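Mods, move this if it's the wrong board.
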Amino acid sequence: MRLAVDHVTRYRFEAPVYHGLQRLRLTPKHTSGQRVLDWDMALEGAKREVEYEDHNYNRVTLISLDEGTREVVIRCTGTVDTADAAGVIGRHAGFLPLWHFLRPTELTRPGPQVRSLLSEFDACDERLPLLHALSARIGERVAYEGGHTDTETSAEDALAAGHGVCQDHAHVFITACRVLEIPARYVSGYLMMDDRVEQEAGHAWAEAHVDHLGWVGFDVSNGICPDARYVRVATGADYREAAPVTGIRFGTHGEELHVSLAVAQQRMEQ
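Not the wrong board. Structure tokens:
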């Protein structure tokens, strides 16, 4: 499948910014099941400083905000060929050992909520069926509903609230996997919706490492393993390591953020 992506992130500040840096994880790479045909990043109110690969092997663009700017626009456009591999990414690669994805983070630290969830499962069960069952149960325990959580919500808090979005589903799944001693990581990217092209945000899901298969994706929110409609952009131990945009700025605290995203299938020439 050939997917065309048009992703615009716009920041408007209540006062001029005199200094700011942002790390952008907005560039997908060639990986199992996807091939990037073209990708362009255009900036307004900022300039590119350097590009590098971080410890998670993500492509990172460091930008500096123009002094005195009150608006920054980041527009990414590109085309990616994808294939359906039933969620299987394959062998582990990159700069980090697998055990790195067993350690808890602030957002994936287990507590009584996660342990209660896991009491329903037998850790000795075969891995792949266990992970599918875990994904389904999390979808039942945490109803998909916005407005109850944010980027600082932990897996424990999402389970306690009983509501959340794709980010929360991924964190709960990752946390539970790590308690079961299964390496797991967070994935940020894009999903082509079946019912619309225009979207308000990107998507997130999780990957768990399964013996003899390698990394396997699980989209708890949609109850499936990622297929050809998905574009992987960044991975990390949790949201903070795979977030599309992170950074600092000085000169103003108030901001207005607007995101527009279009993901559509593009006709492939024969």
